[in-house]
Amino acid sequence: KKLLNCLVNAGINCTYAFLHAVGFAMRDVSKVFLGAHAFMSNGALYSRVGTAMVAMMAKEKNIPVIICCETYKFTDKVQLDSFVMNEQGNPNDIVNISTTLAPKPGLLSEWLNKPDLKLLNLLYDLTPSKYITTVITEVGMIPCTSVPVILREYK
Amino acid sequence: MTGPRDLNAQIESLVNRLRRRQVVGSWCVSIETAMLLRQVVSATRWNQVETLIKVVKEDVGRRLVMAQPRELAVGNIVCRVLRLIREVYNSEDATFDDNSAEDNDKDSNTDDDEKDEEIKSKSSQKIRTFSFYGGSGTGTNTQSSMINLLGDGSPMGAKRASVDDYRKPPNLKPLIISELQEMINELENTYVNIIDQAMEHIHSNEIIMTVGKSRTVEMFLKTAAKKRKFSVLVAETFPTYLGHEMALSLSEAGIDTTVISDSAIFAVMSRVNKVIMGTHAVLANGGLISVSGAQMVATAAKHHSKPVVVCTGLYKLSPLYPYDEDSFNDLVAPDPVFSFNEGDLIDKVTLLNPYYDYVSPELVSLFITNTGGHPPSYLYRLINENYDPDDTDI
C-alpha cells in the first residue's frame, strides 16, 4: 500500500488487487517489476513471499519479469527451494482477519488448543532463475545468471 | 395432485431463492432443481412430448437459469432432464412402432459404427436396459453422428409431427418420472460414490494441498484419514477465508492440518505430493470455474510437476464452452482489498476482486467424479451422454 501511495502521488494510473486476482489481472499486463531481498549465486531470487507466485504466473503468459536489485544484495550462497532456509513470521497474523466478507472473524483463534491444527506464516520465498528475464542493477542490466560474475568482479 | 397454481408458487419460490442466493452450494441447487422439475413433469398437463420439452426448457428452465446465471448447476440439471425425456420418448417410441425402426432417428452422438449394427438388430427385440449412463449406449437405438450428418439429421420435432397425431406411447409420464427419481437418487448419492475412491488416491505420509472449502474434498479427505495417516496444507484463500473453515473442519477430524497464506503456495509446493481441490463448475473443455486462487495453485503444481486432482460430482459438468473466460466471473465488492477508511486513495485507484478463477484444462490431471476417475480429455464423452446439443441455449 505504501508503494501504491507513492505511485498514485506520482500521477501514475494504478489498479490494486490481491494475490488471488493475479490470474485475472495478468491478462492486461505487459511487464512485471519486482523487488528483491537477496540474490543467490545460482540466479535465484530471495524475496518477499508471493514474489515467486507472480513471477511464475507472468512466465506462464510469456510476460517479461524484471527485478530491480542493487549489487550489495548479491550473495555467494546457493539455494534451490524456499524451504531450506526461510523465516517464520508471527502465526497469529494468519488468525487476524479484519475483512467484511469473513463469516466468522478469528475462526482460528483457538488454534493453539487444537492438536492437529498448525499455522505456518512464511516470510520469504525463492524464485527460480528461469522465471526471471533480467535484473536491473546500478552497473546495468544483467541476466540473472550473471550474478556470480558480478560478485567475482567485486572480489 | 398439485394444481398449476401451486406449481407456479413452487417455481417462484425457487427462482426467488436462487436470485437472493439463499440456496447455497451447487449440490443443494441441483437437488432442488431436479425435484422441482419432477413436480413440473408430473403436474403439468401435456399430451405431446414437445409440449413437455417446451415447458421444461423455456417456461421453467430458462427462468431458473436467469435467476442465477452464475450457478451453472441449474442449467446442467435442466439439460439432463431434457435429455432424459427425449431418451425415454425415443425408446418407448421404438418399441411402440417396431416395423419402422428407420424412423426413430435421434441426434444423439454416443455410438461407434460397430455398435450401431448390433443395436439396430436388437431394437426389434425390444431390449431396453435403462441405467442412466449406460442406457444411451446399450438400449436405445441411437445412431452415430456421422450417419446423421449425411442426411437423416432432422430434428426430432419435424419427424414426429406426423407420427404423434395418431400414435402416442401411453405410459411416458410414469417412465419419465421414474427416470427422474433415479437421477435424484444418483444426485443424493454423489458424495458416497466419490469418497469410495478416496483410498485409491491417497497413501500414507503424503502431503496434500488444498484450496478453498469444498464439501466433496472434505469428505474425501476424512474418509481417507480413517485408514491412512497424511498431512494437509490448506491455503487460506483470501478474501473469503474459506480455507480457515476447511482447516478447522479437517483438524477436528484428526487430520494433521497446516494453514498457509496464499502467497506461500509456490514456496511450499516443492514439498507437496499432490493437490486435491474442489470446483464450482466444470466446463465443456475440461476447464474449471473455481474459487479465486485456484489458478495459482494449479499453475504452481504444474511447475513443480505435481498432479492436480479435482473432486466433483457430475452435476457440475456444464455443456458450456469458455469462449470468453470473463463471462463466468463476478467481480465482487472491493472492500476487503482496500476498505473505505484507507483514505482518499480510493478515487485514484482501480480495485479488482474477482470471485472465481478460470483454470485451464492443461493444468488438471484427473477428475474424480461419482462415475469414477476421468482425465480432462474424456469429458466430451460425458457431455455427449448426458446433454443434447439443442439445449445449450437455455
Automatic annotation (TrEMBL), chain A:
Summarize the subunit comment: Component of the translation initiation factor 2B (eIF2B) complex which is a heterodecamer of two sets of five different subunits: alpha, beta, gamma, delta and epsilon. Subunits alpha, beta and delta comprise a regulatory subcomplex and subunits epsilon and gamma comprise a catalytic subcomplex. Within the complex, the hexameric regulatory complex resides at the center, with the two heterodimeric catalytic subcomplexes bound on opposite sides.
Q: Where are the transmembrane segments?
A: none
Where in the cell is the protein located? Answer: Cytoplasm, Cytosol
**Protein name in the entry:** Translation initiation factor eIF2B subunit delta
Question: What's the chief localization of this chain?
Answer: cytoplasm
Keywords in alphabetical order, please. Cytoplasm, Initiation factor, Protein biosynthesis
- Highest taxon above the source species: Eukaryota
TrEMBL record, chain B:
Report a single Gene Ontology molecular function. guanyl-nucleotide exchange factor activity
Q: Does the keyword Cytoplasm apply?
A: yes
Which proteins does it associate with, and in what oligomeric form?
Component of the translation initiation factor 2B (eIF2B) complex which is a heterodecamer of two sets of five different subunits: alpha, beta, gamma, delta and epsilon. Subunits alpha, beta and delta comprise a regulatory subcomplex and subunits epsilon and gamma comprise a catalytic subcomplex. Within the complex, the hexameric regulatory complex resides at the center, with the two heterodimeric catalytic subcomplexes bound on opposite sides.
Would you say which domain of life the source belongs to? Eukaryota
Provenance organism = Gigaspora margarita
One GO cellular component term: eukaryotic translation initiation factor 2B complex
Q: Per its record, how is this protein called by name? A: Translation initiation factor eIF2B subunit beta
Point to the regions of Acidic residues compositional bias: 95-116
